[in-house]
Amino acid sequence: MSREETRKILESENILPRSRFGQNFLVSDDIISRIISLVDADTDDLVLEIGPGIGALTKPLSAIYGNFTAVEIDHVLADYLKSEKSVTAKIIDSDFLKLDPAEYEADKISCVLSNLPYYCMTPIMKKIFSECRNASSLIFMTEDEAYCRIDASPKSKNYGPLAVFVSLFGSLTKEFTVSGDCFYPAPRTTSCVISLRRGDKADVLTTDFILFVEKCFSMRRKKLMNNLKSSYPAEVLYKALRDKDIRAEDLTPVEFSKLYSDIISMIS
Q1: Sign, CA torsion 160/161/165/168
Q2: Residues 89 and 178 in one domain
Q3: Can you give the pTM of this predicted structure?
């Protein structure tokens, strides 16, 4: 979908891009094709797109995948997509973060795509990790500056819950960067497209585990014992935490998984 096509659609439908939803519409056919090539799913698999906009990806992908669902927070855009004959996807007019898993058949989804606005990047990724339990691949576009929080190592300043969850989900690849002039309106930032492939540790990413890791990082400079003592019995923490002075930033993702497993097994 070119810049001119996008402008014509926006004008004819009287659609104004809304900055509060991070609406910058993709207008590069080359980037659209490259993203489509990353989708790893069979044609009858359920594929989910979050934030389809005016359908730059939705239109070609819904023609390929018979079970395609798109969730759009903007009612005007959702109505436009529902009226488009070239869109054969199921359009859900809602805020993805407020959707019950059953409403979008989370457990049946094979692949998820989303252009993630920075302001809601982490909440959306957390929801996908915990609810889309059978998704084998995820394809995200986000601000390039945010990538340092997605791919961060222990003991680094950017290391936090999101990096832990991404690492435990599976393999991460930074596929390519996308310049601002590939969007309309053009943002001042550069974006990047990343892909995640599910690994054998992804099942740990339950809602309870995600809350556990966030508690561990709740006060970064405090010891884990202090961050967790209000949630778990002291005697359990003393047994599970072999190093009583350790902080969240010192643990690897796998060590978080083991610590959680040890604590839960002691209190079960």
Answers
A1: positive
A2: yes
A3: 0.94
